[in-house]
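Order emerges. For instance:

***
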Amino acid sequence: MVDLKEGVKRVISPYKSLFGIKDVEEEKSEEVIERVVQSIEKEKSEEQKQAITKPYSFDKEDVIQFIGVTKRFGNNLVLNNISLGIPEGKILGLIGISGSGKSTILKLLIGFYRPNKGQILYNGKSIFKNSKDIRRTFGFSTQDNCFYGKLTVEENIRYFGELYGLTRQFIDNHIEEVLNLVQLNYVKDKLAENLSTGMQRRVDLACALIHDPKILILDEPTEDLDRMLRKEMLNLIHQINKRGTTVIITSHLLWEIEHLCDKIAIIHDTNIIEVGSPADIRNRYFKYDEIHLELASDNYDKIIRSFNKKDIKNIVRRHHRIIIYTSNPEKIIHSILDIAKKKKEKINHIELRKPNLDEIFEYLTKK
């Protein structure tokens, strides 16, 4: 059997002039052959990767479906044969590092990009064949501010309402409701450029809500906000969802997503590598509870020697505390309290918890 390099060499040899290669330039000829081989091997690797992607099972509640979607920018493969269902009336979180393809998924969903392969459906219909309905139904708030700084808050919202094709009467009937929802009524006559970062983010959100969308798409809505403002924004998103709006949100602040979302999709290396509720994903990868224990004396050997080892998966020392991984946390906590009392050890801190999404994300992306 002829190997790949030899096969490419046979194909290219009669056409050297097309590659700018003279017969005496064997070194240049080898460079071209090597580039072609690398290109073929890269394509082959991506095809194999695509072939082993796990089949995705859609639910009847999924109002949006990504089916085998692939997206490239030139030779750069961003999304490789992804499938994902987004349930109606829920909050979906897209998790991934910068450049993983989160924003690309959102821009595909609103029709800003077209996939190289696959389908994106809303209520069973292609979003690309139903663009008017998508524009009326979807609201999109980007990572960068979309409002106009020289317009007031109210002027911005009215302007975006007109872009959505709303009548003046519809805007008049809904603008107060939107202003109250995002808590900007008292600054509606101020120029947007004079508002704080947190308020500006809410102006963007108001502009995406004026047409009363069924689907709200938010790209990194808490980016650059301090912890208090992030909490306020997340509470606002939760209130919007309670009104029946399906919310799709991206973030790299994983602890936020864990407590806000009904469903999570983890994106890494061009693929969606895990999907499910936060609890399902935690239970899938970490079947053990964590007990965080801190003693005043820092003398943990006494405690550890007294444990029944069959109830403990692992014990990790971290700074001035230990973390005990166990499938029987109630029994272990009872043992700790009993041993500490007998050994006269003072407990500064004891806490029971599950591993968080940050730890799982780190585990999945470093495998």
In short: The longest helix spans residues 26-51. Residues 286-365 form a domain with the Alpha-Beta Plaits fold (CATH 3.30.70.980). The chain has 13 helices and 14 strands. The longest strand covers residues 62-73.
